[in-house]
Amino acid sequence: MAIKPAGPNAQVAITPAVQKAVQDSRRDPANVKRDAYRHPAQTLSFFGVAPGQTVIEVTPGNGWYSEILAPLLHDSGRYVAAVVDPMAVAEGRGRDYQQRSRDGLEKKFAGTATLYDKSTIVAYDPKAPTFGPANSADVVLTFRNVHNWRSANQAEGMFKGFYSVLKPGGVLGVVEHRAKADVPADDKTGYVGQQQVIAMAKAAGFELAGSSEINANPRDTKDHPNGVWTLPPTNQHDKADEAKYQAIGESDRMTLRFVKPAR
């Protein structure tokens, strides 16, 4: 089902280079199906991602966006996947999760060497995050991660790390599950208030350069029993409710472009 973006700023001019990367035949067909909800061509074009740049994606998960960013930057530019260093996490389930995540991404990259041979995986300590040399990146991207950092009391350090690694004039692109309004620090729904995210970025020194409704979903009522994870693609719901949540689709999301001031 094609879920069209909603809102006055939804239409973004898609660049040919980004469109070509989105249409790359090496993408996982299961991931391609999510394009109807995640609008990667519009999103990356809105953030100004282009060949020749150094682009850091923070906590890329199973590499959904890696499949697009790696070919986009392969011949000109650099794609860096920044993952949590498992050894920086206390021993136990948290470390095990981060190790599985890193192992899975490394396996993905090794499985298609011609695609990821110029991509880099770097590890960071979430308690003191550093993503590369200061003033070295053109773009930092993060997709649906801010709620995790916020609940772990790591958001302030993460945004400071983004600011440090970006060049003056560099772009921070954020996509996040959008709450109806501000939510408390201990909120467990996975949603975050849009003004809260803007405040976090501004506190780190960023300026808001633009917002878009590319990834808006007015069908999302944001009152689900298992929070955002009730919806696709996680689908933490009773089988009897499958049709209901598939009709909603993925979450309502903010799409924000911040800039590190050129000084």
Automatic annotation (TrEMBL):
Residue ranges, annotated region (Disordered): 213-236
GO biological process: methylation
Record keywords, A-Z: Methyltransferase, Transferase
Gene Ontology MF term list: methyltransferase activity
Statement: the UniProt record of this protein carries the keyword Methyltransferase: yes
Top-level taxon of the source organism: Bacteria
Protein name: Class I SAM-dependent methyltransferase
